[in-house]
């Protein structure tokens, strides 16, 4: 299974980016292979529609779960429709590495 994690940078030491649609990167964690790939978010500076465009990006991977600090209202209904689980992590100090460890347990 693949999980998208919103990230402030492109390393495992990067912190969680609390914004879903405007995060800097998506860390794509594969629970089967234990590999992580970082995808730059081309929608982070979009004037509008960053959230739905980011949903399409991660849905094309495809992922089954997304970890972020927050999800906008429009995003929630899209993700429910696509059957992608939302996981909210309020601790912005968590690194991508920390979140992957949490996902393993």
Automatic annotation (TrEMBL):
Alphabetized InterPro entries for the sequence: Di-Nase_FeMo-co_biosynth (IPR003731), DiNase_FeMo-co_biosyn_sf (IPR036105)
SUPFAM superfamilies: Nitrogenase accessory factor-like
Highest taxon in the source lineage: Bacteria
Domain Dinitrogenase iron-molybdenum cofactor biosynthesis: 13-103
Gene3D superfamilies listed in its UniProt record: Dinitrogenase iron-molybdenum cofactor biosynthesis domain
Pfam families membership: Nitro_FeMo-Co
PANTHER family per record: DINITROGENASE IRON-MOLYBDENUM COFACTOR PROTEIN-RELATED (PTHR42983), IRON-MOLYBDENUM PROTEIN (PTHR42983:SF1)
Record's protein name: Predicted Fe-Mo cluster-binding protein, NifX family
Organism: Bacteroides luti
């Amino acid at each position: 299974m693949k999980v998208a994690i919103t990230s402030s940078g492109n390393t495992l030491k990067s912190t969680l980016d609390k914004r879903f649609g405007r995060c800097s990167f998506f860390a794509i964690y594969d629970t089967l292979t234990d590999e992580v790939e970082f995808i730059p978010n081309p929608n982070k500076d979009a004037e509008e529609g960053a959230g739905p465009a980011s949903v399409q990006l991660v849905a094309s991977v495809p992922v089954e779960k997304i970890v972020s600090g927050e999800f906008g209202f429009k995003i929630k209904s899209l993700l429910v429709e696509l059957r992608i689980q939302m996981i909210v992590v309020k601790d912005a100090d968590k690194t991508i590495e920390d979140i992957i460890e949490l996902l393993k347990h």
